[in-house]
From TrEMBL:
InterPro entries: Citrate_synth-like_lrg_a-sub (IPR016142), Citrate_synth-like_sm_a-sub (IPR016143), Citrate_synthase (IPR002020), Citrate_synthase_AS (IPR019810), Citrate_synthase_euk (IPR010109), Citrate_synthase_sf (IPR036969). PANTHER family: CITRATE SYNTHASE (PTHR11739), CITRATE SYNTHASE, MITOCHONDRIAL (PTHR11739:SF8). GO terms for molecular function: acyltransferase activity, acyl groups converted into alkyl on transfer. This is Citrate synthase. It comes from Dentipellis fragilis. The keyword Transferase applies. PROSITE patterns: CITRATE_SYNTHASE. One of its GO terms (cellular component) is mitochondrial matrix. SUPFAM superfamilies: Citrate synthase. Belongs to the citrate synthase family.
Length: 435
């Protein structure tokens, strides 16, 4: 059976031909008009990028290489004794468009475990960060520093032919993914005083090792949660802030480490990945204010107070989705199976019942339904990972799968520097004044 790199090498030539053929046939066709509001409105809905790994349908949600979340849950290999998909398989799927065998997935687990160590100076860099520095800032710092050993940067400096870019990009991507649990584990233990980081176990899968580094490796349900979590947070088509940032920065031929640290900084914003932290902060404040078994009326009042205070309801709404996020549903099903009586889960379920109607009544949000971040924190809290400030780091471990898969393909397909045109308000005004 081919390794991931061997399979990728086989797939690149026909994919290049396919892109060439699609461009020859459709290259000059138009998607329709661009309107001025899109320039002012965060480019919402503007067709602007090619991203092979996943596509987001407003009603149906994400498909990874054409497959929905329930489909990948069924199709991807599982760990012995586990029932959640292994994220190793999702990475294989994102890169190749193919479902790997159990053996190929085991090969990836072993390769990532073997590459997991980080340079001593990066360990020291993390250890020197004050615990008051947000875990996402520490994460991004450490990932930036990994560029010290970038195979791509080195090959570029030595004058590599552009046709060969994908090879060292692949190696850097594998290293990056492999090292993220070590970095994430070290940050967790430093910030929350959880003692020394254990060694990576070369026999264990990626999620099991991550759980172990965080101190939850003995808890089978938590390990299963990590497998599901890392799978569903990996990719969400190309235009979201983290995916797009990774692609944009990579287009300058910045190596995968510095491209991904830029993506992490975008993920660290409260309207994007930090929303998983915000949700838990919001729910705990709600519990403190109205108690743990609050009535629907009390919850509604709290939600309205949030809106009237000029704040968003974290975990609700989406720039593209118009229905409940299937990533929310997958986590809700996990909760129904493993923690149906958890008090905080009950509150999350109660909020799900009440918030959409309130957001509809408030009349602003285009999508009143919950997104992925509305559910992840309650699951982590249930197992004792209740340090909310850390939640986005786990999102960041997962999102690397999608961003690097795309960086590999961008370099393989010779994606150009990104450089859209910007306009001044004066220019817009002049352009349309006499029309
Ligand atoms: N609570 C209150 N108001 C909301 C809202 C929410 N959950 N979602 C949208 N709105 C408001 C917007 O703030 C905007 O108000 P203004 O016109 O005053 O600026 C208006 O509704 C229209 O926004 P929209 O077109 O529906 O949404 P956008 O595409 O602009 O933004 C998002 C999308 C996710 C940033 C927004 O829904 C939001 O802020 N949600 C809460 C934060 C969150 O959960 N983010 C995580 C998203 C998933 C992820 O990336 O991880």
């Amino acid at each position: 059976q081919p390794t991931l790199k061997e399979r990728l090498a086989e797939l690149i030539p026909p994919t290049l031909e396919r892109v060439k053929a699609v461009r020859a046939e459709h290259g000059k066709k138009s998607f329709g008009p661009v309107i001025v509001d899109q320039l002012y409105g965060g480019m919402r809905g503007l067709p602007a990028l090619i991203w092979e790994g996943s596509v987001l349908d407003p009603d149906e949600g994400i498909r990874f290489r054409g497959k929905t979340i329930p489909e990948i849950q069924a199709a991807l290999p599982k760990a012995p004794g586990g029932s959640e998909p292994l994220p190793e398989g999702l990475f294989w799927l994102l890169v190749t468009g193919e479902i790997p065998t159990a053996e190929q997935v085991a090969g990836l687990s072993a390769e990532w475990a073997a590459r997991a160590a980080i340079p001593e100076f990066v360990e020291e860099l993390i250890d020197r960060c004050p615990p008051t520095l947000h875990p996402m800032s520490q994460f991004s710092l450490a990932v930036t520093a990994l560029n010290h050993d970038s195979a791509f940067a080195k090959a570029y400096a030595q004058g590599i032919n552009k046709k060969e870019y994908w090879g060292p990009t692949f190696e850097d991507s594998m290293d990056l993914i492999a090292k993220l649990p070590t970095i994430a584990g070290r940050i967790y233990r430093n910030v929350y005083g959880k003692g020394k980081l254990p060694a990576i176990d070369l026999q264990k899968d990626y999620s099991h090792n991550l759980a172990n580094l965080l101190g939850f490796g003995e808890n089978h349900a938590f390990v299963e949660l990590m497998r599901l979590y890392l799978t569903i947070h990996s990719d969400h088509e190309g235009g979201n802030v983290s995916a797009h940032t990774g692609k944009l920065v990579g287009s300058a031929l910045s190596d995968p480490f510095i491209s991904y640290s830029a993506a992490l900084n975008g993920l660290a914003g409260p309207l994007h990945g930090l929303a998983n932290q915000e949700v838990l902060v919001w729910l705990t404040k709600m519990q403190a204010k109205i108690g743990t078994d609050a009535t629907d009326e009390a919850v509604k009042e709290y939600v309205w107070a949030t809106l009237k205070g000029g704040q968003v309801v974290p975990g609700y709404g989406h720039a593209v989705l118009r229905k409940t996020d299937p990533r929310y549903i997958a986590q809700r099903e996990f909760a129904l199976k493993h923690l149906p009586d958890d008090k905080l889960f009950k509150l999350v379920a109660q909020v799900y019942k009440l918030v959409p109607d309130i957001l509809l009544e408030a009349g602003k949000a285009k999508n009143p339904w919950p997104n992925v971040d509305a559910h992840s924190g309650v699951l982590l809290t249930h197992y004792g990972l209740d340090q909310m400030g850390y939640y986005t780091v786990l999102f960041g471990v997962s999102r690397a799968f999608g961003v690097t898969a795309q960086l590999i393909w961008d370099r393989a397909l010779g994606a150009p520097l990104e450089r859209p045109k910007s306009y001044s308000t004066e220019a817009i005004d002049k352009m349309f004044k006499n029309k």
